[in-house]
Write a structure and sequence with these properties.
- InterPro entries: IolE/XylAMocC-like, Xyl_isomerase-like_sf, Xyl_isomerase-like_TIM-brl.
- GO terms for molecular function: isomerase activity.
- Keywords: Isomerase.
- This protein has helices at about 10-15, 20-30, 50-60, 85-100, 125-145, 160-170, 190-200, 245-255, 270-290; strands at about 5, 35-40, 65-70, 105-110, 150, 175-180, 205-210, 210-215, 225, 235, 260-265.
- It is globular and about 50 Å long.
- The longest helix has 20 residues, at about 125-145.
- It is of the alpha/beta class.
- Helix 7 runs parallel beside helix 8.
- A hairpin with a 5-residue loop joins strand 9 (about 225) and strand 10.
- An eight-stranded parallel barrel has the order 1-2-3-4-5-6-7-11, surrounded by five helices.
């Protein structure tokens, strides 16, 4: 199992100008990662995304750093002004970026869920046919380019293990699977071990993430924490410093034959470089012991 790092882990440094997205590729190589996952296309030099994606690909080739996955947003309910065909077309254009990058895995969202004001008597099951249509058409297109597509347990509405399992089985295409984020299940108050054991057979890609968990029945812990769907408090942590049973989740993935990338997605308050580096050391040990 190889270890990657999501460029999202460097977001704070990209945001304050310390690193560019282009710099993250060399930094990940320098830190000892086997690959990097790129999140969106974030030009720093005035170039268009179409131009910048070629710069990213060139830099990855120069430092001999594989791009393990390309991640970007999508919403088959509301994206592109609610025009499903237009959103599918836009996502296909992002698949073209993945091809330029040499990424063999893509993660796109399914939806953020119904807007508060127009939810009505509609839940996940009512959204499912439209999500299936979007995901299936995109994965058929991606398959023609040698790219597999995934959705992640992410964003509250499409995050529960039962829901993402239902989506992948409804799409029912061998090119479509899941990005299993072991930490994100806590955002909907699911036990990571139970959730990962449910969806592990569908994993095309995986995120290692850790959170500190505080009960919602207590006082708000303050800065750095956010609320789960059920009102508990989470704070991003260095891999191994929180409550996610990272090694056990890796063991579950291994037990079903998963041998793809395990990518760190660091969301902690610590210095990003230090937090990512400690997480890498811990993660390699967990993978060896799992």
């Amino acid at each position: 199992m190889k270890v990657s790092v999501s460029s999202y882990s460097f977001s704070r440094l990209i945001g304050n100008g310390t690193l560019t997205q282009l710099d993250c590729i060399g930094k990940a190589k320098e830190m000892g990662f086997d690959a990097i996952e790129l999140v969106e296309i974030i030009p720093h030099d005035g170039n268009t995304k179409e131009e910048y994606v070629h710069q990213l690909a060139k830099e990855a080739n120069r430092v001999k750093m594989p791009i393990s996955s390309f991640t970007f947003g999508a919403d088959f309910l509301y994206g592109s002004g609610g025009d499903l065909k237009a959103e599918i077309k836009r996502v296909k254009e992002m698949i073209n970026f993945a091809q330029v990058l040499g990424a063999k895995i893509v993660r796109h969202d399914a939806t953020r869920g119904y807007n508060q004001g127009d939810r009505g008597y509609r839940g996940f099951n009512e959204a499912l046919p439209r999500l299936v249509e979007g995901c299936r058409e995109v994965t058929i297109y991606a398959e023609s380019k040698g790219i597999r597509t995934t959705v992640e347990n992410h964003g509250f509405f499409c995050q529960d293990s039962e829901r993402v399992e239902k989506l992948v089985n409804a799409v029912a295409h061998p090119n479509f699977g899941l990005l299993v984020d072991m930490g994100n299940f806590l955002c909907v108050d699911e036990d990571p071990v139970q959730a990962v054991s449910r969806v592990a057979p569908y994993a095309f890609y995986a995120h290692a993430k850790d959170f500190l968990v505080k009960s919602g029945s207590g006082i708000n812990p303050g800065a750095g924490f956010f609320k789960t769907r059920g009102g508990n408090y989470l704070r991003g942590m260095i891999i191994g410093h929180g409550h996610v049973p990272v090694q056990q989740c890796i063991s579950i993935l291994k037990s079903v034959g998963y041998d793809g990338y395990m990518a760190i997605e660091f969301e902690g308050m610590e210095d990003p470089i230090k937090g990512i580096q400690i997480g890498l050391e811990n993660l390699r040990r967990y993978i060896s012991n799992a």
